[in-house]
Amino acid sequence: MSTPILHHYNESPYAEKIRTLLGYKGLRWRSVIVPRIAPKPDLVALTGGYRKVPVLQLGADLYCDTRLIAQELERLAPTPAATTAPASWNDVVEHWVDVNLFGKAVAYTFGVAVDHFDDAFLADRAALRGAPLDRAALKASVPLAAQELATQVAWVEQGLAGGASFVNGTQPGSGDFTLYSTLWFARNGRFDFSRFPATQAWMERLRAFGHGEREDLSADEAIALAAAATPAALPDPVSDQRDPSGLTLGDAVSITPELLGHGTTVTGTLARLDAQRITVALDTERAGRVHVHFPRLGYRVRKAVQA
C-alpha cells in the first residue's frame, strides 16, 4: 500500500477528522503542512486549483473532501472498520453535521476568537464564502451561536447517555469522526462541555485514538512523488448508463464545491462520473499527469467553457 500523504494544517477541523481516522486505523502517514490562507501554490500545483484542506495523496491520485478521503482510507485499511451496514445512522449524522452543526460551531468559535484573526485571514474566509465577514457582526453572533450549539450538543448528549460507546454503536463509524471534528473545533473555541458528561467521555474515546504514525514531508517531495507515479486505473465505465448531467468521458469539465467553493474550481478532462464519484485528469506543470477525485454529492460538474 502506498503511504498516504495528507495535505493539511493543524488547526483545521476537517483535517482533524482524517487525522483521528488515521489514528483509529493505526496507519503510518506523511504530513504536508499547507498554509491556512491563499495563496497555496504547492497544493494547487497538484489539484489544478482546489485549495481546501485536507487533500489525500496516493501517488498521482489526489482525493478531495473528507467523505471521499474516509472512503479511500476504508478501502486501503478495512480493519478496524469505520463503516457499518447501509441501515446505520452514519449518513444522517454526517449530513446533519455538515449542513447544520458545523455552521453553528464556526459561528461560535470565530466570534469568540475574532480578535486573534488578522485581516488577511478574515478576507480569505470571506472569499471562500463569497460574502463579507465583519468583526463586529461575528462578535455579536456569539450568544445566539452558543445557544444553538448547546441545544444541538444536548441532542448528542441524550443519544449517548443511554450507554452507547459511540454514535455508531459499539465501534465508531464515519458519523462519529465527522461529529468529533466539529465538536473538537468548538472545544478549541472554548465552548463549555461540562454540562454534557456523556459527550465529553465520548470525545475522550475519540481523542484517545491519536493520529497514527505521522512523518513530516515537504511539499516539493510530495509533488516529486506524484510526478514519479502514474494515476491508478479507473473502473471501466458502464456503457449503457447515461449520466443525467449529459456529460461523457473525455469532456472538458469544471468542478466546484457547492459550499465554501468560491475560487476553488478545477478544470480537467472527465475520466470518471457515476453516482458516487467524479474524477478529472490533469496534466500539470510540476506533477505531470494526475487524477483528482471528488465525491458526487456536494460538487457541481459542468462542461467547461472554452476560451
Characterise this structure.
The protein has 307 residues and is an alpha/beta fold. The protein is globular. The chain is 41% helix and 19% strand. The longest helix is centred in the first third of the chain and has 24 residues.
Apparent shape: globular
Helices and strands, in N-to-C order?
Answer: EHEHEEHHHHHHHEHEEEEE
Widest β-sheet, arrangement of strands: 5-2-1-3-4-9-8-7-6-10
Helix share bin: 40-55%
Question: What's the story with the biggest beta sheet?
Answer: 10 strands, mixed
Estimate the strand proportion: 15-25%
Structural category: alpha/beta
Report the total helices: 10
The number of strands is 10
Q: How many angstroms separate the termini?
A: 40 Å
Assembly of the depicted chains: single chain
pLDDT < 50 runs, ≥5 residues: none
Mean pLDDT: 92
Cα Rg: 20 Å
In short:
The protein is α/β, with parallel strands linked by helices. The protein has helices at residues 13-24, 41-47, 66-76, 90-113, 119-129, 135-140, 142-160, 174-188, 197-207, 219-228, and strands spanning 5-8, 28-33, 55-58, 61-64, 213-216, 252-257, 266-273, 277-284, 288-295, 299-303. β1 (5-8), α1 and β2 (28-33) form a beta-alpha-beta unit.
